[in-house]
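can u pls check wat happens w/ zinc ion
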Amino acid sequence: MTDDSRFANRIPPHLFFLISAVFHYLGPAFAVLLFARIAVLGVMWLRIASAAAVFCIWRRPWRVFAALTPSQRRLLLALGVVLGVMNSCFYEAIARLPLSTVAAIEFIGPIVLAAFGARTPRNLAAFALAVSGGWLLTHARFGGQPFGYLFAFANCIFFMLYIILAHRTASEGATAGIDRLGAAMLIAAVTALPIGLRQALPVFGHPLLLLAAIGVGISSSVIPYVCDQLAMARLPRASFALLLSLLPASSIVIGVFVLRQVPTARDVAGVLLVAVGVGLHRAREAAREPPPAERLIAAALGSSQAFETVAYLADHIGARPSGSKNAALAVAWTTERFQTWGIDVCNEPVTVPYWVRGGESATLVSHNDQRLVVTAHGGSVATPPGGLTADLIELRSFEELDARAAGKIVLFHNPIDMDLVRGGHALEAYTKAVVFRSEGASRAAAHGAAAVLIHSIGSASLRTPHTGCVVYDGQPMIPAGALTIEDALLVHRLIARGERVRLHLDLQSTLMPEVDSANVVAEIQGRELPGEIVLIGAHLDSWDLGTGALDNASGAAMVMETMRLIHDGALIPRRTIRCVLFMNEEMGMSGGRAYFAAHQHERHVAAIESDMGVAAPRGFSTTLRGDALASLVKRFAPLAGLGADRLELSTNTGVDTSLVVESGVPGFGLLPDDRHYFDYHHSPADTLDKVDPGQLAHCSAAFAALTWILADG
Ligand SMILES: [Zn+2]
């Protein structure tokens, strides 16, 4: 499902239809020539069996069958049986009647159904045309070939079933459709075995005849049905039905040139009346075709690969700090995934910092050398070799900083506001607390502090420390880290009792030379406005303490899954969708800056980011305002079914896309329920077991749906 589907997507679906139309009758025309040596049902079975053999070699359909749900299996069994019976009837009919007559009768059924289904003047007119055409073709001839007409009408009924079942098979994407078609063909060969095998036996003694029979199978079944699947996956059923009207007419041409079945004027008139009727009718089902956003949601929930992506990144590759070997492995692996899926992808250079954590410890020398659990903040300078020992003072705000800080370890008392977290505003709580991590070191250094510590910024703790980036702003650089919540509270209690607290702090880390790394950039070209870009992104790097499953392998998996679903669904959006896996969000947004520098001149129409972990999706934060927001809300119905239709106004929709958004492009950020995100985020507990596959599929579905709505609206 790779290079072939990528190639297939570049071909207009109508061309597949044309190929299907030509082979649809060219094959049977050759089959009629075989009738001289082999009985009709023998030819029929050889056609199905040889097609099944081709599919077996090409697609290995038994694998497909094993992976299906029971209802998908039933659909496939039904399609297989219908194919077998339809082909038998068709061959019995063309052995007795002209090809063009059989072809025309084949199409009366869908028109009759449409007329009954939607009694519009248009469909009634189509019905009248088809009935008159059918009357011209069959009038006064029933006496001559009653069985021919019986089989022709039976074929017509099974042809309708084929269209319905095959379209349902194609709705999950062209490549999935072809795989399932192969499985159905195998079932059809087995179904038709008792009817056709005996009559087919003579062919095995004649290599030339056998070759001809295989030719019939390829040109009658493999080529047209595959083309049907490729066309059906890209065309609404109404357009497909319209194109079907060309088939009866093409059968006359092939009948004349290949079979020398010169039609009478009456035959031609009959076939043409049916053809016009087919073109005119509108099946009611066409209106019920789910819109692409809903199809994407169904596909995301039905056959998600997002969890496998997270699992590989988190479990197999592991922590991916910027500049590390693992980060490079993640770039290579995700690039390869896009290639495997058949999506255009490239790497764009990004230079990143490479900070390596060393040993880290804190000992409460004033209180019996109790060991505290501490971790250095990313980018922190090291303590002197062997560590430093100093008194610790606790401050609640930057305003309390003064000369007392000189030579001391400053501990900021910055516990996260759990009321905000429990109220569903965890990001707000985090943002309020995180200022002490980013700015605390430089603020304290301005007053001569020796080192700075904060409370780990988490909403839960089992003595798990929480890291993150420290920002030095020109003041002397002092070591910076976080105590676990439990240890910060221990120190807090000691100080509250008026006791002197003295700490030995040893944070070893090394800032290595910068490393050449990359953003992974994948793209699906728009069909109408390729110069307008909907940017979707997530960062690929992680912190080093856990394996970055929530932050942010899951975000990367959602945007990758969005690309895969759109590509596999053979959906071509109006605008271009560009997916960027940004390198180094955590230690200074290198990837976001490099992307903006390289692409700021391009016309971005929206930027959607995922960097808030995995939970039930609630909606998106957005910078969109006014009429544009109101008109988007009107198109949000597909997201309502997921409970993900909330739009929260915000100026911050994601770090990596922030420069693009600040340049005036509407920004969106996925908002999963965040009440437990900061329990694990940036801590050693950010591991795969925290990712719920069902919630991840829901997040991917919401992300894909919004992407489609913005790219195709
Ligand atoms: Zn993140």
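The first helix runs from residue 3 to 10.
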